[in-house]
Amino acid sequence: MSFSMTPVITVDGPGGSGKGTITQMLARELGWHLLDSGALYRLTALAATRQGVALDNEAGLVAVAASLDVAFEPTEPGEPVKVILAGEDVTVEIRTEATGDNASRVAVIQPVRDALLQRQRDFQQPPGLVADGRDMGTVVFPDAPVKIFLTASAEERASRRYNQLKDAGVDVNIDTLLEEIRVRDERDMNRSAAPLKPADDAQVIDSTGLSIKEVLDRCMAVAGQA
Ligand code: DC
Prior knowledge:
The protein is α/β, with parallel strands linked by helices and about 230 residues long. The chain has two domains: about 110 residues, Rossmann fold; about 90 residues, Rossmann fold (3-Layer(aba) Sandwich). Helix content is about 45%, strand content about 15%. The chain contains nine helices and eight strands. The strands form two sheets. A five-stranded parallel sheet has the order 2-6-1-7-8. The chain has a three-stranded antiparallel sheet with strand order 3-4-5, with helices on one face. The site of 2'-deoxycytidine-5'-monophosphate has 14 residues, from helix 2, helix 4 and helix 8.
């Protein structure tokens, strides 16, 4: 990997740990770029489905990942970044449970991960980058000076997701969500390709029972130690 002076803060952890919100707030607070690496896995899954590439067709998935035509467009502060796939706004579609589940399946395939690696590293641009994912601190930016691993209990993550979906007008059952979260955790943590785990030099923050503000304060304190 080429050495770069541009600083990176990595924020890894399971889905629903508050990573998405926290990375957006950190990036805004610092005036740095943001990488939502999960979106790239979600986009690969969505593009594959649209192109009729089966989720067990490894070579087909690698081709889809390598040729993703994607743009991330900034929006108002507090709003999710707009995600454009081949000219079409897929911001809402990539967030569905079905796309998340498919993303978790394509993410176990090492050649797909390899195909997305450089695209992720290209986000390291001055003045700095906050990178959100599962393997930001372990694989993509192993030299990052600040590494955070954000976690929360499965029950708390299910309840946060439930509220998010309810606010978005999506009808879901909390027990189903909890079960889905457990299945996805299991897959993400036990896969051989870049499993979800804290880097040796990561600071682990458990956000269970903490407000967003409290989590942000702790992350800023960690960022300040660099
Ligand atoms: O963070 P997310 O829910 O948008 O991620 C979607 C899926 O992609 C998730 O199941 C794990 C996978 N992923 C990954 O394997 N590596 C990353 N750096 C980011 C996400």
